[in-house]
């Protein structure tokens, strides 16, 4: 039986049934897409952005330590040197706190491999920095400066480079998630637009 031969009541019932089915299906797809979009947003805001903050704090702490070490080598005044040492100790505490928070969040296999590299760089850099400080505090400025330039700076730079690489990894992941979120939004929008267009078409045909 053709649609034009059906009774008006039957046509209305069929149209209503199709409209109801279409509405439920489109709503389900839209809700699923919006749910995925929300998860993507949460991943960026609550995870990746926090990771970036931790890595930034670590990099800044290393920068403070490097700057303070140079100051300590040049300073003769004991009181001023102690103030600089206090800054250095605080920077190291800030680094360790940010590191502990970061590794709790970054738990995938590739992340763990980066952790091992960063830990190795830290374990190579800090003893050299400590030796520089020991020489400077002992009045051996020339030896301290020589060690700083010849070895400590290089170890610190390698440490910083690994943190920058870690930052790039997190930022790249954020970009991937953002692109996925954009795709999920477009899908949800198109589903809703398609459902509205189909509903309008049904109303015209009936």
Specify the structural class: mainly alpha
Largest sheet: none
Helix % is over 70%
Radius of gyration: 31 Å
Order of helices and strands: HHHH
Continuous helix count: 4
Shape: rod-shaped
Beta strand count:
0
Mean pLDDT across every amino acid position = 81
Detail the poorly predicted runs: none
- Give the N-to-C terminal Cα separation: 15 Å
- What is the subunit arrangement here? single chain
Q: DSSP strand (E) fraction?
A: under 5%
Please tell me about this protein's structure.
- The protein is 92% helix and 0% strand.
- It has four helices and no strands.
- It has helices spanning 8-74, 78-105, 109-137, 141-205.
- Helix 1 packs antiparallel against helix 2.
Summarize the structure.
With 206 residues, the chain is mainly alpha-helical.
Quick tags:
206 residues; mainly alpha; 4 helices; 0% strand
Itemize the secondary structure elements and their pairings.
Layout: H1 8-74, H2 78-105, H3 109-137, H4 141-205
Helix pairs in contact: 1-2, 1-3, 1-4, 3-4
């Amino acid at each position: 039986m053709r649609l034009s031969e059906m009774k008006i009541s039957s046509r209305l019932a069929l149209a209503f049934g199709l409209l109801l089915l279409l509405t439920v299906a489109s709503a389900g797809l839209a809700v699923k897409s919006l749910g995925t979009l929300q998860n993507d947003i949460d991943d960026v805001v609550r995870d990746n952005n926090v990771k970036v903050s931790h890595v930034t704090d670590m990099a800044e702490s290393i920068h403070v330590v490097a700057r303070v070490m140079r100051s300590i080598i040049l300073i003769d005044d004991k009181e001023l040197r102690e103030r600089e040492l206090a800054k250095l100790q605080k920077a190291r505490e800030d680094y360790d706190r940010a590191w502990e928070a970061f590794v709790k969040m970054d738990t995938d296999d590739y992340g763990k491999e980066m952790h091992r590299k960063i830990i190795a760089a830290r374990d190579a850099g800090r003893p050299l920095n400590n030796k520089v400080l020991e020489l400077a505090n002992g009045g051996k400025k020339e030896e301290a400066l020589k060690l700083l330039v010849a070895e400590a700076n290089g170890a610190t730079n390698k440490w910083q480079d690994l943190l920058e690489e870690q930052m790039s990894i997190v930022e790249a992941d954020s970009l991937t998630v953002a692109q996925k979120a954009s795709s999920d939004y477009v899908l949800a929008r198109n589903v809703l637009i398609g459902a509205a267009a189909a509903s309008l078409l049904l109303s015209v045909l009936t």
